[in-house]
Amino acid sequence: MGKRRVMVIGLDCATPQLVFDQFEDRLPNLRKLMASGITGELESTVPPITCPAWMSMVSGKTPGDLGFYGFRNRKDYSYDGMSFALSYSMKDKTVWDILSELNKTNIVIGVPQTFPPKPLNGWLVTSFLTPGIDSQFTYPGSFRDEVFKVTGDYKIDVDDFRSEDRQRVLDEIYDMTEKRFKLARHMLKTRPWDFFMMVEMGVDRIHHGFWQYMDPDHIAYEPKSAFQSAILKYYQYIDEQVGTLLEHADSDTLVLVVSDHGAQPMEGGIALNQWLIDQGYLTLEEYPKAPTPISQLKVDWSRTKAWGFGGYYGRVFLNVEGREPQGIVPLDGYETLRNELISKLESMTDEQGRILGTKVFKPEDVYPEVNNIPPDLIIYFGDLRWRSIGSVGYPGIYRYENDTGPDGANHSQRGIFIMNEGRYFIPTRGFLGLAQGPPKERPPVRLNGLHLMDVAPTILDWLGVSPPPDMRGSVVRPLASPNQVDVAERTDG
Question: For residues 361-394, b (16+ Cβ closer than 10 Å) or e, as one string?
């Protein structure tokens, strides 16, 4: 056996119902990996959001362990003390941190929450949270010039992807993806590596911008749209790009194709703070004449028990006596109020009186450890078929437009997991590289119960490194096994 390596191809938001079902026959490279590999739906974090999900994946830790619960988090108990979860928020070790300490060489491209870049043994390009390409977005710093030389004008993210200018968004998605994979191929070809990982954000961006054109059941479906096949064609393009990376894998390479969460059609939005006002939990000094973000309103904290934030999921914070500056909820009434809110939120209906199916979580019930300042409640409106809208000033709580721009999809709780060894999909090579025979055959294996925290210990195990005992995930070993295998059930979020 030669030197073992790991190649992780991250497709942000790639969703099982498309990869494993609807599009499978038209994705030849992914299908090849699945045909003799291990696949399964990958349970995401609570909440299933890019941040914290990717850092949870590469550390084997829950959001509670990591101490951040979304892109923006409370840094203190003031009413406006918020901070972005950037690389310095990540105190736990990632797989490439652990491998760097063992003198193994890493290539990391586009993994969310890596800006500002931290040192590693290898090369790193930061993610879409980078302010721009004029920032220092590589490690080492001198590598930045090479990125520009290879890609021309490297693209961190799509500008204003929630836009009505659909063609411009689509063009930018392709431009971004082409440059990211071009850089990845260059690095795989020109650098030694033990561990390679890249994350492509284009899948997420195309879901949010174009789902309504693909899905006849979507509330905003437009039949015969010019963009009806935009998502399928992009998935096919991604599959082609994945194929170009597989050319750099050998028989001792473990390949993982993973996503941090899935996607589903967005049915609408619930104006969370509007609802809290209507229910008597939130009081303003003056009601706005037009929709206005909660951060721009004057809240009467002396009469406010709770307020919330918008996003793909909802967050509610209680105004607790002795905790918040003007807290009025007594400590002995804290749990009573939380339970009251849960009961009301989970019994919410849509405009036709049908139960939405909202789920509400207490952080301590989903995380074994809770660090820093979590939300007091985490809300999945309609089990994430509805987003949370934080602005106030609407005639009602039901909205069918996003307050941050047009958006056709929301996240779902499960992403994808595909794992295969090079010896099962790469033809053996003979003199002058001529194929001597097909790859070894192995029946596909479908695993149930996979969690994204399993990815980090699985990577380390393949490379002969014992996962640290505080990693919460389980090792998935690429061995032939019965067609249905269950991974132990977890309750750690």
Answer: bbbeebbeebbbbbbbbbbbbbebbbbbbbbbbb
- For the stretch 436-486, pLDDT in tens is 556 777 788 999 999 999 999 999 999 999 999 999 999 998 754 444 444
| 65 assigned to some structural domain | yes
Is there a single domain that holds both residue 97 and residue 181? Answer: yes
Q: Point out the residues of the chain with pLDDT beneath 50.
A: 429-435, 480-493
> 432 Cβ partners below 8 Å, 6+ apart?
none
Residue 275 lies in domain: 268-406
Q: What is the identity of the amino acid at 42?
A: L
Buried b (16+ CB within 10 A) or exposed e, 212-238: bbbbeebebbeeeeebbebbeebbbbb
**Tokens read off for 39:** 């696949």
Is 81 found in the same domain as 189? yes
Bridge partners (DSSP) listed for residue 418: 39, 257
CA 284 to CA 291: how far, in whole Å? 14
Q: For residue 376, what is the enclosing H or E element?
A: none
Query: Does residue 89 sit within a domain?
Result: yes
Which letter does DSSP use for residue 134 in this model?
A: T
Per residue in 83-112, pLDDT tens? Answer: 999 999 999 999 999 999 999 999 999 999
Say if residue 260 is in the same domain as residue 272: no
Split into its structural domains, the chain has a count of 2
- Asked if residue 226 and residue 130 are part of one domain, the reply reads yes
Question: 């934080």: which residue's tokens?
Answer: 390
User: 455 and 419 in one domain?
Assistant: yes
Residue 422 CB contacts under 8 Å (≥ 6 apart), including other chains:
249, 250, 251, 252, 253, 254, 255
pTM: 0.94
Q: Is 313 helix (H, G, I), strand (E, B) or coil?
A: coil
